[in-house]
C-alpha cells in the first residue's frame, strides 16, 4: 500500500507538481554602470510569475536583450526554484551625432540622457555606415595619439571626405583620397614646426598632393619659415 502511494506521489510530481513549483528567486549577475536593476525587474516581471518549468527562457532572454544597455545575456534555470541571468553591459565608445552613442563594436545606443556623455568624442558619418566609420576613426586616433593629440570630432561626409577636429580646436581637412598617407605626412612635420607654431594653427588643409595649407588663428604673427625650418641658422652663421 505504501509502495503504491509513493508511486502515485511520484507520478503527480512528474506530471503536475513540478510544473507548479514556483520561481522564488531571479538572480542577475553583472557589473552595471548604466543599466538599472529597476529596468531589468520591469522587463522580467510578467515572465517569471509562472512555474519553474513553465517559464519561457527564450522570452526572458529576448526581453532582457532588448534593454538599451544590454550587450549579451545568458539565462538558465537553477533547481529547484531559481532563474540565473548573466548580463554584460554595453560600453559607450563615442557619440554618434548629437543624440546617440556607439559602442566599441559599432552598436548604436540611444540613451535617455545624452548629457552625461558630453566628454566622449563625436563621430559623424553616413547612416548605416557606423561600423566602417568607427574603424576609420580608431585608425586616425592611433596616429594622433603618437603625437599626443586628442580628437574631439571626426566627420566623414556623404562624399567620404574626412575632417578631424582636435580638443585644441585645430581642424584638419583630409579630403577623399589617401587620407591616412596625408595625415602621416603632416604629423611628420610637427617636430620641425614646433609646438608653438602648431598651437597657432586654426585649420590645416591636407587636400593637396604634395603639401598642405594652413589658416592661422586671428592675431597670429607672420611666421619666418626659414627660421622655423632651420632653427640653428643664426647660430651656425
From TrEMBL:
The keyword Cell membrane applies. It is a single-pass type II membrane protein. The keyword Membrane applies. GO terms for biological process: cell septum assembly; FtsZ-dependent cytokinesis. Pfam families: FtsQ_DivIB_C, POTRA_1. InterPro entries: Cell_div_FtsQ/DivIB_C, FtsQ, FtsQ_C_sf, POTRA, POTRA_FtsQ_type. It is found in: Cell inner membrane; Membrane. Keywords: Cell cycle, Cell division, Cell inner membrane, Cell membrane, Membrane, Transmembrane, Transmembrane helix. It comes from the Bacteria. Coiled coil: none annotated. Transmembrane segments: none annotated. Belongs to the FtsQ/DivIB family. FtsQ subfamily. Part of a complex composed of FtsB, FtsL and FtsQ. This is Cell division protein FtsQ. The gene is ftsQ.
